[in-house]
Design brief:
CATH architecture of the largest domain: Sandwich
Order of helices and strands: EEEEEEEEEHEHHHHHHHHH
Low-confidence stretches: 1-16
CATH class of the largest domain: Mainly Beta
Strand content: 15-25%
Radius of gyration: 19 Å
Mean pLDDT: 91
Number of helices: 10
Number of strands: 10
Helix content: 25-40%
C-alpha cells in the first residue's frame, strides 16, 4: 500500500467515502533507497476493497486510525487486521479491505533500501504480513508513537525523514554482487537468464539465491517474474486496447497462454479483468 507503488485506496470507492492522499517529496539523498512517502486518510463509513499486484516495493505503514484487513493471495478474514505493519516482497497479489476510517503514513522502500533500513535478512519478512511489534525494533516503535502524537502531516513527515536519514547513514552498504544482479534484472525487464547472472558473478545459482534471499527477500527467478509482469501490466495500461499476444511477445513470455498464467498468479484474475483494477 517504482514505479510499482503499494497503496491502500479503494478499487471501487463508495459514494460516501472520500480519500485524502498527501504526497511528500522524497529528498534527493534518500532517492536510491526510498520510492515514496505518502500520508493517507479515509473519511467514509463503507467497506472498500483494493488489490495490489506484485509490487516491487517494501512498505512500512504506521497507522493512526482503523486497521486494514489484509491477506496475501486471498480475501482477508475478520481477524487479519493490520494497523502498523510491513511486508517484504511477495510474488503474488494482496487483497485489502478497509472500513473507510483508516489513516496512516506509508514509506515505500526499494528492496535494497529496505534491507539497509531494517537491518535484517529480507527473507524474514518476505511473503508475509508483519506487525511492527514483531520486529522488536525500538527505533520503529518510537517512530510509531511519535507519529501518533503529531496531528499534522508536516511534523509527521519531518519525523520520518529524520529517522530515515539516521538509520540509512548508519546502515551497512549494499551487497555489491546482489545489487548488481538486481539492477540487471530491472534493466532487462526480467528477461535476463539467472544462469547468466551467476556466471557473470562467478558464483553458483545456489549461492546467488542465498544472497537474494538475504538482500531482496525472494530468489532472482521470482524477482525476474515480478519485474516482467509489471512491465506487461504497464504496457497494457498505456494501450487503448491491449494486444495481449503482442505484449506477451514483447515481454519475453513463451506465448499468450504463459502470460495469462503469470497474470493470474500475480493479480488473481485474467488479463481481461484489467479495466476493473486501479
Amino acid at each position: 500500500m517504482a514505479e510499482d507503488p503499494r497503496h491502500a485506496p479503494s478499487r471501487a470507492p463508495q459514494p460516501d467515502a472520500t480519500t485524502v492522499l498527501v504526497q511528500h517529496r522524497v529528498p534527493a539523498d534518500l532517492g536510491g533507497e526510498v520510492i515514496r512517502i505518502v500520508g493517507y486518510r479515509e473519511n467514509g463509513h463503507a467497506l472498500a476493497h483494493a488489490v495490489e499486484m506484485a509490487p516491487l516495493a517494501v512498505p512500512l505503514i504506521v497507522g493512526f486510525g482503523e486497521p486494514f484487513r489484509i491477506a496475501l493471495g486471498r480475501a482477508p478474514t475478520a481477524d487479519e487486521r493490520y494497523n502498523s505493519f510491513t511486508s517484504g516482497l511477495y510474488p503474488g497479489f494482496v487483497l485489502i479491505d478497509s472500513t473507510g476510517r483508516a489513516e496512516c503514513i506509508q514509506i515505500d522502500f526499494t528492496p535494497l533500501g529496505a534491507r539497509r533500513f531494517f537491518g535484517i535478512p529480507m527473507c524474514e519478512i518476505a511473503r508475509r504480513m508483519v506487525q511492527l511489534d514483531e520486529l522488536g525494533d525500538p527505533d520503529i516503535t518510537d517512530l510509531r508513537d511519535r507519529l501518533g502524537e503529531h496531528g499534522d502531516w508536516r511534523h509527521r513527515f519531518a519525523a520520518v525523514e529524520t529517522l530515515l536519514r539516521r538509520r540509512l547513514a548508519a546502515a551497512a552498504p549494499r551487497h555489491g554482487a546482489t545489487a548488481w544482479a538486481y539492477q540487471r534484472i530491472l534493466a532487462s525487464h526480467g528477461t535476463v537468464r539467472i544462469g547468466a547472472l551467476a556466471r557473470s558473478l562467478d558464483c553458483s545459482r545456489k549461492h546467488l539465491n542465498q544472497h537474494f534471499g538475504e538482500e531482496i527477500g525472494i530468489g532472482p527467478k521470482a524477482t525476474a517474474r515480478m519485474v516482467r509482469f509489471n512491465r506487461a501490466l504497464t504496457i497494457a495500461r498505456r494501450a487503448e486496447t491491449a494486444d495481449w499476444a503482442q505484449i506477451a511477445a514483447d515481454c519475453g513470455y513463451a506465448d499468450q497462454a504463459h502470460l495469462v498464467r503469470e497474470f493470474r498468479a500475480f493479480s488473481g484474475a485474467s488479463p481481461s479483468a484489467l479495466p476493473s483494477f486501479p
